[in-house]
From TrEMBL:
Its EC number is 4.2.1.136. GO terms for molecular function: ADP-dependent NAD(P)H-hydrate dehydratase activity; ATP binding; metal ion binding; NAD(P)HX epimerase activity. SUPFAM superfamilies: Ribokinase-like, YjeF N-terminal domain-like. Its cofactor is K(+); Mg(2+). (6S)-NADPHX binds at residues 221, 284, 336, 403. HAMAP family: NADHX_dehydratase (MF_01965). Keywords: ATP-binding, Isomerase, Lyase, Metal-binding, Multifunctional enzyme, NAD, NADP, Nucleotide-binding, Potassium. Residues 1-176 form the YjeF N-terminal domain. This is ADP-dependent (S)-NAD(P)H-hydrate dehydratase. The lineage of its organism: Bacteria, Pseudomonadati, Pseudomonadota, Alphaproteobacteria, Hyphomicrobiales.
Amino acid sequence: MAVSAAALRLFPSATRFVVLCGPGNNGGDGYVAAAALAESGASLAVFAPGDVGKLKGDAARARATYAGEVHAIETYEPRTGDVVIDALFGAGLVRDLPKAVQEAISRVDDRCLPVIAVDLPSGIDGRSGAVRGASFTATHTVTFMAAKPGHLLLPGRTHCGSLEVFDIGIPDRLVRSRAGDLRINTPAVWQQHARGLDPATHKFKRGHLVVFSGPQTSTGAARLSAMAGLNAGAGLVTLASPPEALAANAAHLTAVMLKEIGKAGDLAEWLKDRRLGAFVLGPGFGVGKKAREFALMLCGRALVLDADAVTAFMERRTELFDRIAAEGGQVVMTPHEGEFARLFPEIAADTALSKIEKALAAAKLSHAVILYKGSDTVVAAPSGRAVVNANAPPWLATAGSGDVLTGIIGAHLAQGMPAFEAAAAAVWRHGEAGMRAGRGTTAETLVENIAPLPE
């Protein structure tokens, strides 16, 4: 009924509604929608693959609600003015679509017809978002009770169009039980850790964030992270710079402080100051022995490992993972697709796993929170908690955007947020900053558009 209502609401001038019904319960939904459309007086045609006489259970009972003729899907010839209701296969699809269905999708695509998908566009794997042979690209998708991973993970998300979640009366406790520790990333996940400012606070109580700079020719990324950390709420931020980069960094800094840290010994001495709340290592830092030494020294603290600091352990990851486990710090790693494949090659290569499952496997292996970047960023914890982010605009894909995200995570850690919540909140704020900055955003304007944490 929700599907038929959406069809009439969105396409009141449709010449004909074409309902494509599959062999299971998704097809059953299609037959009920067809019956409702017929009762409304709409022009209608129903097509299905295979023998509809072999339907069983709920699908057969739903088929009985529609009194009209059902045609073979092979005979469907799209017309101008058709609106297609795709009720062929839903979220449970785990195999490639039958040839006849793929050919029907191709015919609909050729005519650029609008499609309303029931549950998920046929061809999208509800668990991973993968395309199984072919898929409709829907104008609108009606799903029930809760969004599925395939609605949020790429490429599935790009096939869904606008998403409508309709309540069909399943108790929330059952939905949550089935979802386990997987959520869409919203303030509800982390808001309890986003503390308001105490009127009696001072800068050290708001958190001291340290960002490590790279050499003289690679200082910009660290400065972006530092400024993002300051704008995101850290009470003070220090850029730890090698001697050769001091002049370059000093020329660009005002509110961010500067400290000379050249060798591991310098860092060891500085770490005696327990007011240093959190650390960002990686943006523009360089790949090599120094990155590994610094990272291993910081595994007992609140730490974000990004970019070069992730790649530096490509061939020595066990050393890092063991140190994180032994030291018990609040560690967040932020790999993009390429960095993830370098650090977790066996997980990345497993095509049976969804992006969520890959992130969870990497978190368990590394003992760190994994922020697996992309348009469908996933944040996963070793405990099994995971969120999928959904508010990031496409124009965030710009140079330096990831450095800004890293700085926001660092600010949250410096303020005392747990690693998982710090990362999830940062991804959400990063997306909101992108929306505020608009389509022409650069990393610099992104920093200026970081809004306060919602309270």
